[in-house]
Amino acid sequence: MLKVVKFGGSSLADAEHFRKVRQIIEEDPARRYVVPSAPGKRFSADEKVTDLLYQCYYNKNDRQLFDETFQKITDRYMQIENDLGVDSGVREALEEIRYEMLFQGTSDYAASRGEYLNGRILAAYLGIPFVDAAKVIVFDENGKLNPALTEISLREKLRETERAVIPGFYGATPSGRIVTFSRGGSDITGSLVAVGVKADLYENWTDVSGCLKADPRVVKRATPISIVTYNELRELSYMGASVMHEEAIYPARQMNIPIQIMNTNKPEDPGTKIVARVTKEQIRERGIVTGIAGKRGFCIITLEKNMMHNEIGFGRKALSVLETNGLSFEHMPSGIDTLSLVMEERTIRDFDQLLADLTQACQTDSIEVIHHVSLIAVVGQGMAGQKGTAARIFTALAKADVNVMMFDQGSNEMNIIVAVDDEDFPAAVNAVYDEFE
Ligand code: ASP
Question: Which residues line ligand 1 (CB under 6 A)?
Fold first, then answer.
């Protein structure tokens, strides 16, 4: 058994958390490769080291502000080192980083140092080798990840060492320029390392006991999902559930490596397992609905034209207007003489222009717009072939006095989407949650 373990920023925010992390790693000899984030928040008003590094970089022309912020970063790391009683040479490294940030480094370089320094401290504290991500995570000169070269580099480098700490979030181009992933990208590094060493499991340790069945800000008593497929998770995170960095799923999924989300502060909790397939037995245990996610801020634009059902090319004309305006749509339900476009409101820069373009291109009789629409996705592989699920959803919504403006079910029957007024959003999510609890 071989495991790659990634610890998020809140799991490595201070010495106390480093101690928990060491205990977790030492408890299981299979946990051989460790991917850390930069120190996150210790309390809600605290600052993440990555944010401080960006602040420093963008304020380097205001030397006083730069120095004040850099001092905060230095203090964070020195305190961790002192509390743990290790010396990983971070003080000297900070001197070099300060100089680089002021005179030549890029913003990616600056941001990456959070993980770099945390990785060095963690490696010293665990007493295992540190492998710089700049040597194994390969980006091309345009700043795009090169997954094939990354896999080879990781495999070759990590073959030399039984155990190692590899910092998350960054890599480098063949010419040595540091490139970071987008925010939260240490999850991606963890997934890539899991592929590189052909791990049996990728454990992602964070500060929640797994992926919850609904957003806890909306459904207070939401409990964790025990097991979820990559596809279900993709649907849930697309619709707003925050679990892992979206791009982190792909590498592990391609190699069929399961991912386990775990809580550093409650390691005894089972967490959430992300896998390719679930068995009938597992579906029976967890219920037919795996999770509910939702997003506000949509609008529905309905085009109406007499005899539309006879007109070939009407849909193409409407969609080509979206294409020329660089817009995408979420859903496109249609009636005999109507066609509706469900779109994310914030993506539409000039509403009047869009409506004028649609009227002109499609020669519509009228256009109607509904604003403040929320979409709710009820996701579950167990819904396929199961009768009565939609009926239960709609009955629950009706009982909660929620009007459904539109609904859509993908033909894979894994997902039922309903559109409701923004104001009904919490009531709707809670009603569906209660029904399938
Ligand atoms: N430290 C980076 C961030 O705050 C990357 C990560 O934590 O995954 O976004």
Answer: 9, 37-38, 48, 50, 114, 168-169, 183-187
